[in-house]
């Protein structure tokens, strides 16, 4: 626990230095009062200027205490490119939490001030953010305890194009019928839906029981559009659960966005029956489809696919990998080097020799050096007498 707390403090300290947090008041005509938002913008982003980039949005209920850990972990994961740079918005509720999250015990749906708060988020907060920030289509909502129950109302809203695609539900204090609502939606969703559920061994007993029961049901859902993960953490209390669980939520939500790992390489790529290059292009097409982000293919991922091709000794995909590398990194050595390797392995030494010579003029990257391509060219010249 001490180590977790120390890590969290370190992350939050880093955020204060490197990420910009704004505090904005919204005059709400729906609520008839002023509400405060906390807004974290990504590193290097000037909140008052349009930098031409678009960012996913993370909306955090219970922003008074939940914003800082969420914003810190988002900043940390974005720094390591395990998720896209994102805008995080916390909605403060400390004085109005009970009324904001109010639901009717008879039907488990928002009522009175609870319904007004829903309208406030949809009709005032989101339009304000859309107007003032460049937002991608991908939006996540995070809640804890009672607010973890409440985030589900945004999932239940009937929309042709859902406003939110991802829900992080931490130690949820569910309304009586909420679990049945969720289990009804999950198998039927026709758009991509990410759902993360967490509890702990020291959570409130009723919350733990209900959360684990819902998780058991959702794990059986057979729907390619429903991406579900759940965890029961060993040790944390109900109130410390978010500090332990939110990082896992991000890992599960943005798994396809992350660089190819050793596990992905070993368990997936090396076992492919088809081309590993097709796997690579599909991975990045999925990133664009899910998150609206056209991400440059990482050098790490090129190296993983190249290693898989070498291991298989099926060289045909290497030609296509070379073309993709040239497109992604036109000024660098990686594309020409892969083409030279392709020619060398298919028994075209003269073409390989010329390709190595051509590669020399490009910038080094990914551990491929000018010295290496010259050595390979010289070796071919010595072997074949060019």
UniProtKB/TrEMBL annotation:
<dbReference type="InterPro" id="IPR011990">
    <property type="entry name" value="TPR-like_helical_dom_sf"/>
</dbReference>
<dbReference type="InterPro" id="IPR029058">
    <property type="entry name" value="AB_hydrolase_fold"/>
</dbReference>
<dbReference type="InterPro" id="IPR050583">
    <property type="entry name" value="Mycobacterial_A85_antigen"/>
</dbReference>
<feature type="signal peptide">
    <location>
        <begin position="1"/>
        <end position="19"/>
    </location>
</feature>
<keyword id="KW-0732">Signal</keyword>
<dbReference type="InterPro" id="IPR000801">
    <property type="entry name" value="Esterase-like"/>
</dbReference>
<protein>
    <submittedName>
        <fullName>Esterase</fullName>
    </submittedName>
</protein>
<dbReference type="Pfam" id="PF00756">
    <property type="entry name" value="Esterase"/>
</dbReference>
């Amino acid at each position: 626990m001490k180590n977790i707390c120390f890590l969290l403090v370190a992350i939050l300290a880093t955020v204060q230095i490197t990420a910009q947090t704004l505090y904005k008041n919204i005059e709400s005509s729906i609520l008839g009062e002023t509400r405060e938002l906390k807004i974290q913008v990504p590193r290097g982003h000037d909140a008052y200027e349009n930098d031409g980039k678009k960012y996913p949005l993370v909306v955090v209920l219970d922003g008074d205490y939940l914003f800082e850990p969420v914003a810190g972990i988002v900043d940390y994961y974005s720094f390591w490119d395990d998720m896209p740079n994102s805008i995080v918005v916390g909605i403060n509720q400390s004085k109005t939490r009970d009324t904001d999250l109010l639901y009717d015990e008879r039907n488990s749906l928002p009522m009175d001030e609870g319904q007004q708060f829903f309208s406030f988020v949809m009709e005032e907060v989101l339009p304000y953010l859309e107007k003032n920030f460049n937002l991608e289509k991908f939006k996540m909502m995070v809640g804890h305890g009672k607010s973890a129950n409440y985030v589900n109302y945004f999932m239940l809203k009937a929309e042709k194009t859902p406003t939110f695609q991802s829900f992080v539900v931490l130690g949820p204090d569910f309304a009586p019928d909420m679990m049945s609502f969720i289990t009804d939606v999950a198998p039927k969703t026709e758009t991509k839906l990410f759902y993360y559920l967490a509890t702990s061994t020291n959570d409130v007993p009723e919350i733990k029981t209900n959360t684990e029961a819902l998780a058991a049901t959702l794990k059986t859902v057979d729907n390619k559009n429903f991406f579900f993960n759940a965890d029961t953490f060993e040790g944390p209390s109900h109130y410390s659960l978010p500090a332990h669980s939110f990082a896992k939520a991000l890992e599960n939500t943005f798994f396809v966005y992350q660089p190819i790992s050793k596990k992905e390489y070993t368990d997936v790529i090396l076992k492919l029956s088809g081309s590993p290059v097709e796997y690579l292009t599909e991975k990045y097409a999925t990133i664009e489809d899910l998150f609206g982000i056209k991400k440059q293919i990482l050098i790490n991922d090129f190296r993983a696919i190249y290693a898989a091709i070498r291991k298989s000794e099926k060289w045909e995909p290497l030609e296509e990998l070379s073309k993709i590398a040239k497109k992604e990194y036109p000024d660098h050595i990686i594309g020409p080097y892969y083409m030279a390797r392709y020619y060398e392995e298919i028994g075209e030494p003269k073409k390989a020799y010329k390709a190595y010579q051509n590669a020399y003029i490009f910038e080094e990257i990914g551990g491929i050096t000018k010295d290496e391509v010259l050595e390979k060219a010289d070796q071919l010249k010595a072997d074949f007498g060019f």
